[in-house]
Structure formats: structure tokens, C-alpha cells
Amino acid sequence: MNKIYKLIWNAREQAYVVTSELARKSGKVVGAKVVTTVIGALALTTNVAQAQCVSTSEQNQICTNAAEEVVISDRDRPNGKDIAFIGIPSDDPITSQEGVFDVLGLADGQNIRVKVDRTGQNGSLWGINSGTGKTIVDISGDVISSGNEMIPGDTDTPKFDDAVSITNSENATNLTVNQAASSSTIRGENIGITTSNSGKGSTNIDVAGTVQAKVGIYADNGQNSKAINISQAETGNIDGSVNGIVVNNQGIEAININISGNVTGKGTGTGSVPVDTDDTIDPMNPNGDIFNTGSGIIAENHENATDINIHQLEESSRIQGTATGISAVNSGTGSTTITTVGTVIADGPEKNGTGISVFNGETANAINITQKTGSIK
């Protein structure tokens, strides 16, 4: 019997989520984008390469029942092909077929690991983990968004405009994206690295190379998730034509951002940043206002979260925006702490930007801003 799953655009999470076609609908979804993948006999023409899924003793497109983790490698990926996967809990082996997505039949607690080593390749990396384990993405090569249609020939479905897009569903745990090589380039038409973690763990993003897109990094944690941790090496360069880093934390722990390299947001906005009280933010324009386009770093904690910690660690580091260099909004229960040692600058065309902008809500604690060396302007 075929097992049918739907990918449905979740407006609150700003990501696609996997749901069984047999699941009870809780209400009408207005304007939802739906992609259906059939696990069974249906074969589809695809823009997705047959990734090397390592299960027990053989390598194929459909992976089941590996010991601790399923590994997807890009080593045989042709140029222009995408890596796309869906991890779904399965007690029974899934019949292999060629499809749009690599379908991973996951045992309880089993992790998904993706390895990207090749350089100079076009092709996006996109995946959903609806299992109960971790998602780990190791990137030492290049990921450059392809713009391919998610379902080839179907212009109503979205395109692979983000370079790296990873989603953890509610039963998954940690979500990690690790760009390990300084020579690595991650380049998206829309977003360079975007993560949506509705699971029970933390989100961890490490950057050692170049990340380029309209928004360099967008990280979103759901209400049951934990911390968002973003770390950039001194060799790193996060370059957003709109915003550099945007973090939206609805989880129960802190935002921790450590910057040693350069972060840039080149949007056209100027001036101070208004406060956002909505459940979601648009990474292109987080508060629905021109004032918040053009920020190096935007970090927002919602009511269940705790601290916001943003630390610039190297004197050579530069955090630059047009509206703001660093913007932090903490509606949680912790403190907001920012330390700088390098350059933090807002240099919009009107010359009235804000180097650092911080707002703490009624339930938050202290605001601590420390400039050890460098300049803020």
C-alpha cells in the first residue's frame, strides 16, 4: 500500500511541514501551498540528484533502519541537481522508487546527517526531519541555489531559491548546520541558510566561509524548541543584500550569537527599529516596516524565551547595516547583553541609522551593552 504524505506551507513557522494525507485537518488553511509525494509505485521526473544514502550495507535513494543515523552525501551529485530529503518515521521498509525527494524511513531516535564536500557546484540543499532524532548538516564545499522547481514542470510549486533550507518537525531534536571550511561558499537567491526548528532541541549554525543572499541567515525556533546558537569564525563573511542575520526565537531558551568575522545587511531602510509583537517575522522585512530592512543582526525573543547574548569577539570584525548594525528585541524573561570589540556601524543614505538598538519588554531583565574597543556609529 502506498504511503502518501503532504508538504504544507506553515505560515506561522515560515516553512514546509510534513503531514500524512490521512491526518485529521484542524481547520481551513487559506492559500496553503501543497506538494504531495507518493511513497510507493509512482515515479516522477526530478531535478534532485540521487544522493548517496548510506543505510545498512548498500547505498540507494530510499534509506531505512540504519543503526544511529542515515547519511546523505553529495559525492555523485551532477552540477545543477539539488539534494532534497524527507525523513519520516517508519516501522516497515519503504519500497524504493525514483521520486522528487530522497525518502528516509527513520527508526526512533535516528539522526539524519548530510555531507556536502564538492566545490563549484550549483544545487540547493533542502530537507525536513519528521523523525525523533537530530538533523546535522556538514558543509565543507559549496551550496549555490539552483532555482529549480520543487516539482519539475509544475510552476505552481515553489522553487529552490534558498541555498540551505532545513526544517525539524515537532518530534525531532537538535538542528545543526556547520559550514566547516573557510573556502566554502553558500549562496542563495533568497536566503543563504534558513532553519525552522519546531522540535524539542536547539538550533546551531556555525559559519567559517562565505554566506551570501538577500538574507544571509534566518533562524526560527518554535515554541517547544530550545536555544538558537550562531557562531561565526574570523574567516567568515555573512553578506545580505537586505539583512545579514535574522533570528526569531519563540523557544524556551536563549539566543546566543558570537561574531568574529564580517556581517553585512545592505537594505535601504534607515532609522530606529520598531517593536514587533507578532508570532512570526519576515526575514526580508522583519517588522513590516522599511526601518528594519538593512540590519547587520536582528535578534528577537518572544515571551517564552530567556536571554539575548550577542558578542563580537575580534577587533577586525565588522557588523554593518544601513538602518541598524545590531537590533535586539527581548520580550522574554531574561537579559539582553551585547559586547563589542570591533566596528558596529549603520551607514544608511540618510546618515541617521543606529549602531545598536535594544528594546526589553516588561518581563525582561537588564540591558547590558559593553564596548571594550573599536567603534560604534
UniProtKB/TrEMBL annotation:
It comes from the Bacteria. Residues 1-47 form the ESPR domain. This is ESPR domain-containing protein. It comes from Snodgrassella alvi SCGC AB-598-J21.
